[in-house]
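Intended use. Records like the one below are meant for learning the mapping from a protein sequence to its folded structure. Do not use them to infer anything beyond what is encoded.
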Amino acid sequence: METIPPVAAQCANCGAALQGGYCSRCGQKHWGDHGWSLGHFIHELFHEFTHVDSSILGTFRALLKPGELTAQYLSGHRAAFVNPIRLYLLTMAVFFFFGASTDFSLEGMAQIGVASGLLRGIQQKAHAEGVPYHIAVEHYDTVFHQSFSLLIALGIVSSSLTLWLLMRKRDPWLAKHVVFAVHCYTFFFLVRLVVSGLMHLGQKARWLAGRQALDYATWVMVVAILTYLLLGMRRVYQEPWNKLIGKWLVLALVIFCGYAVALAGGTLIVVWTILKVPL
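Structure written out for the chain above:
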């Protein structure tokens, strides 16, 4: 018969005194030797996967309702949802992964009439340095994505500060406005991902031409983002419509300017890299 050893006096992770099966300081569960049995290990693994899946699904369900995820998170219901920064990073990782096959890559943008000059410059650079063209394109795609991500992060900071300036009398804590801004940007990139995928399918099926697809996609994204932003601000800040509209327009302008700067800045950094930095 297997003997389970008594609970250890100290947490193996942080050294704090243990009271029960969990550490009161860091929260790590104390396994003991029986925790490394195959059956217990599989049970813990299954629990982790189902817990993560349920929290992610619940988080995205709340995110799709304008302002709901932020309102729930700020009211103290944090354990049931994915951390805002982690959610944003997960969304961006998925966005860039699928962006290579849609319009958010240099070749994808060239297919809709954007960045054709960049590809010609990359082709000349690759030929001059004896580097395969596809490797050069992947390299500059990485440069573009990294530059864009950094500039979008600055856009989130500027949006958070704008929210704080607009709503500081209602809530003086900057971090709370950061949560709302991060949730909004996460939703925006989800919309961008879905619309880009549909646009890509439309081009493959020859339902849409390049420039026509870009025009439709732009209008759909603008309407979706503006609507989400307005309803989200109403849900989170509970302001009357007559006071909210002006603040909504200011925040929308800051967000769209930030996005335009990120696109232009990422493109200019790629151009500079092509001209000045060897492959």
